[in-house]
Design brief:
The protein is an alpha+beta fold. The protein has 18 helices and 26 strands. The chain is globular. The N and C termini lie far apart (about 75 Å).
C-alpha cells in the first residue's frame, strides 16, 4: 500500500513555533514548525489571499539538512519569490536532517516530506478556507532521487513532479569514478582535447593521444560523459567521489586489495597507468601546525550559511568536514614533481595512531591538510599526533576506486556498460559480489527507482551534465514505459537542455559556454501545474537518440521540440575566421523555438569570450508568432588574440516574467592578427 502521509503515528503531533508576516523577499506569511518526537523541521511561505491560486511547490534538496535554506537565495534563484508570485505557497523541510540518509533510515526522506506536504494543506485551509491545494514536488541531483522516490511511493500527496538532472540506480558513484579515471590519465592533454571540440577546431578529440589515453577517453565517453564538458576539466574536480569512497569501504572492503593483486584488475598490471601513478611515500611527521600558520593559509572553512543548490549542497557538506582549528601536519618529505596527488591518505606506521588512515584534503608543499571522515573523530585523533610519527603518504585506494565501475556491470538496460560485455553479454572483467551503486541510490531516497510514478511528471536533463550523465533521463523513460506501459508517455515529458551543466546557479564563470536551466525548470513547474489543474498539455518531449553512451539532438527547433530555443551562429558561413585588427567581422545569428513553446525575446552577445553579455540589435522575426528570428551585426577588434564569440538567445512564454526565460547559445572562433 502506498504511503499518503496521513495517520502515521510518527507524525501525529505537528507543531508550529513561528507564524508571522514578512515583507522580504516578497510579502508572505511565514510558518516554521516540525513534528514532536522527530528531528523533522519545516518552513512554509504563504502568499496573500488575493494572490493565492490553490497550489504549492515543494523543494527537495540534494542533501537533507536546513528547512530555511531557501532564504539564502536571491534574484532568479529565489524559489520563495517564484512560488508566491505564481500563486503558490512554498514548502521545504529538512527531510529528517541527520536522522535520514547515510546515518539513519533513508525512508524518512519520503515519509517526512509527505507528512510535511499534508500538514501544509491543513495550514492552507486555516488561512484560505476549505479546499485541497494542488501539490508539486521538485528537486535535482540527489534531490531528483528524492523527488522520484516521493512520486513513485506515495499516493494522493503530490499531483505532479519536476525531477531534474537525475541519476539512475547505477549513477552513484560510477559517474564520478569514470570521470576521475579519465582525468587522471588525460590530465596533461585536456587543452588540446578542448581546442579540438571548440568552434573552428579539428573536431577530432582523439588526435595526438597515445593508445592508453585514447582508450580512457573513449571509455568515459561511452559511459556517458559529454565530451564538450571537458572545457571544465580543471573546475569539476572529483565531484562527490571523496565522500562516496567510504561507502565502498563499508560494502566491499576487499576490493582495494584485490585491485592491486588479482588478474583482470588494472592495478595488477605492472605496466598500467595505475601503477605508474601510485604513490606510497614513506615519511614522518615533522611538525604539527595550527591552521593560522602561513603554510595552512589556503584553507577554506565552512560558511555558517547552508546552501541547497544542486552543486553547492555536497560542497557545503565537504566544507563542514574541514574544521577550523584542526591542525595541519608538516611532513619531512615532499612527493616528486609531477606526482599524482589526488585522494591521498596518511597511513600511520607508528605512534598512538599506528594503523589509522587519515584522509588528506590537500597537500600544500609538504604540509598535509587533514579532512574529516564519516567514521573518524578527527579532532581527537590529531591530538595524539607527535613529531617523529612514521607515516606513508598513499593514494592507492583512490586510484583503485577509479575503475570500480568495470567490476559492477549491471543489467542490460544500462547500455553504457555494453563496452564491458563480451559477444555473449558476459562481463569481461572480474565482478564484485555487491552492487554498491544500488545501495547508494536507495540511500538517497529510501527506495530504488521503479518507473511507476503517480501524477504528471516533467523531467529536465542537461546535455553537458558532468555528474548525472544525460542518458539517465532516457533510462528512466524506458523504465517508466516498461512499468506503466504506453500510459507513461501520456503522463510524462523529458526535456533536454542544450549547453547546460549540472549546477542550478543562474550565473557561472562559464557563461560563454553554458546557460542556466532555471528558466526551463520554473516553466516546467508552471506547465506541470497547468497540465494537472486545467488539462493543458505541455510542449512535447525533446526528440533525441542514444548512441554509445551519448545523447544527440536534432539541429532545428521544429525537429528537436521541447521548449528551449536553438541558436545557429556563423561568421562568413562558418565557425571560424581570421581577420586583422580593426577589420569589421560580420556575424549572423539565427534563433528559433518550437511554435507554441514561447516567443523569442532577444539575442545577447559576448564579444570577447569572457562571459559578459551585452544586448544586440533588435530581432528580425521570420514569423508572426515570433518563434523564429535572425540578426546580422558587425564587430571589430583592436587587439590581436583568439576570441570565442557567443550569441545567447532567450525565449519566454510570458515575456515580462524574469523567472521563465529559457536560454541557449552558440559560439564561433575569431582569430585576430596584428
Amino acid at each position: 500500500m502506498l504511503y499518503n502521509g496521513l495517520h502515521d503515528p510518527v507524525y501525529e503531533k505537528p507543531y508550529t513555533d513561528v507564524e508571522e508576516w514578512r515583507d522580504k523577499p516578497v510579502r508572505h506569511y511565514y510558518v516554521h514548525g516540525g513534528f514532536k518526537g522527530t528531528e523533522v523541521r519545516f518552513a512554509l511561505y504563504f502568499p496573500e489571499k488575493m494572490k493565492y491560486e490553490n497550489r504549492f511547490f515543494q523543494y527537495l534538496a540534494p542533501i537533507q539538512g536546513d528547512e530555511n535554506a531557501a532564504q539564502n537565495y536571491g534574484w532568479i534563484e529565489d524559489k520563495i519569490s517564484f512560488s508566491i508570485l505564481h500563486g503558490a505557497y512554498y514548502v521545504e523541510s529538512n527531510m529528517g536532517g541527520d536522522s535520514s540518509g547515510a546515518m539513519g533510515d533513508p525512508t524518512i526522506i519520503v515519509t517526512s516530506s509527505a507528512a510535511t506536504a499534508q500538514y501544509s494543506r491543513q495550514i492552507a485551509q486555516r488561512l484560505y478556507g476549505p479546499h485541497r491545494p494542488w501539490g508539486y514536488v521538485f528537486g535535482g541531483s540527489g534531490g531528483g532521487y528524492k523527488t522520484l522516490g516521493c512520486i513513485e511511493n506515495t499516493q494522493d500527496v503530490w499531483d505532479g513532479a519536476v525531477p531534474f538532472v537525475i541519476g539512475t540506480p547505477r549513477t552513484i558513484p560510477n559517474v564520478f569514478m569514470a570521470r576521475v579515471h579519465a582525468m587522471r590519465i588525460l590530465r596533461d592533454k585536456f587543452p588540446q582535447i578542448v581546442d579540438a571540440l571548440d568552434p573552428g577546431g579539428s573536431g577530432n578529440m582523439y588526435a595526438g593521444l597515445n593508445e592508453e589515453e585514447t582508450a580512457a577517453l573513449r571509455e568515459v565517453t561511452y559511459m556517458g560523459f559529454p565530451p564538450k564538458t571537458w572545457f571544465a576539466w580543471d573546475q569539476i574536480g572529483d565531484g562527490a567521489l571523496s565522500l562516496l569512497l567510504y561507502a565502498v569501504y563499508q560494502c566491499d572492503p576487499g576490493y582495494f586489495d584485490d585491485f592491486w593483486k588479482l588478474p583482470g584488475y588494472l592495478g595488477a598490471d605492472p605496466n598500467s597507468s595505475a601503477c605508474r601513478d601510485r604513490l606510497q611515500l614513506p615519511t614522518q611527521i615533522e611538525a604539527v601546525l595550527s591552521q593560522d600558520s602561513d603554510a595552512a593559509g589556503e584553507l577554506e572553512h565552512a560558511s555558517a550559511i547552508q546552501h541547497t543548490g544542486v552543486d553547492e549542497a555536497w560542497r557545503d557538506y565537504i566544507k563542514k568536514n574541514k574544521l577550523p582549528g584542526v591542525p595541519c601536519l608538516r611532513l619531512k618529505d615532499t612527493p616528486p614533481e609531477g606526482a599524482y596527488l589526488q585522494g591521498l591518505y596518511l597511513i600511520f606506521q607508528s605512534g598512538a595512531l599506528a594503523g589509522m588512515k587519515l584522509p588528506v584534503d590537500k597537500l600544500i608543499g609538504n604540509v598535509a591538510v587533514p579532512v574529516l571522515a564519516p567514521t573518524l573523530d578527527l579532532t581527537t585523533a590529531l591530538q595524539a599526533v607527535q613529531p617523529g610519527d612514521q607515516v606513508i603518504l598513499d593514494n592507492s585506494d583512490y586510484i583503485a576506486l577509479q575503475t570500480y565501475y568495470r567490476h559492477q556491470v549491471p543489467t542490460p538496460d544500462y547500455k553504457a556498460w555494453d563496452q564491458f560485455r563480451d559477444k555473449d553479454g558476459q562481463p569481461i572483467y572480474p565482478q564484485r559480489p555487491i552492487l554498491a551503486p544500488e545501495l547508494l541510490a536507495r540511500n538517497a531516497s529510501g527506495y530504488p527507482q521503479n518507473g511507476n510514478f503517480h501524477g504528471k511528471i516533467i523531467i529536465l536533463e542537461s546535455m553537458l551534465d558532468e555528474c548525472a550523465y544525460p542518458w539517465g533521463a532516457d533510462w528512466y523513460l524506458h523504465k517508466a514505459v516498461e512499468t506503466k506501459g504506453p500510459q507513461a508517455l501520456q503522463d510524462m515529458r523529458v526535456w533536454f537542455t542544450d549547453n547546460a551543466m549540472h549546477g542550478d546557479s543562474e550565473n557561472t564563470a562559464n557563461n560563454n559556454r553554458i546557460v542556466s536551466y532555471l528558466g526551463e525548470l520554473y516553466q516546467a513547474l508552471l506547465d506541470v501545474s497547468a497540465w494537472v489543474e486545467k488539462g493543458v498539455e505541455p510542449a512535447p518531449s525533446t526528440v533525441y537518440h542514444y548512441e554509445d553512451g551519448q545523447i544527440y539532438l536534432p539541429a532545428t527547433a521544429s525537429e528537436r521540440k521541447g521548449i528551449q530555443p536553438v541558436v545557429d551562429l556563423e561568421i562568413s558561413g562558418g565557425k571560424v575566421v581570421t581577420v586583422k585588427t580593426g577589420e569589421p567581422v560580420t556575424f549572423t545569428a539565427k534563433a528559433a523555438v518550437l511554435s507554441g513553446a514561447g516567443e523569442l525575446t532577444g539575442i545577447d552577445w559576448d564579444w570577447y569570450g569572457d562571459g559578459n553579455y551585452v544586448a544586440g540589435p533588435e530581432l528580425t522575426f521570420q514569423d508572426e508568432g515570433k518563434s523564429s528570428a535572425v540578426v546580422e551585426t558587425q564587430f571589430l577588434y583592436s587587439q590581436p588574440g583568439i576570441y570565442f564569440v557567443a550569441a545567447r538567445a532567450t525565449s519566454n512564454r510570458s515575456p515580462k516574467d524574469k523567472y521563465t526565460q529559457v536560454k541557449n547559445l552558440d559560439r564561433v572562433r575569431v582569430i585576430v592578427t596584428a
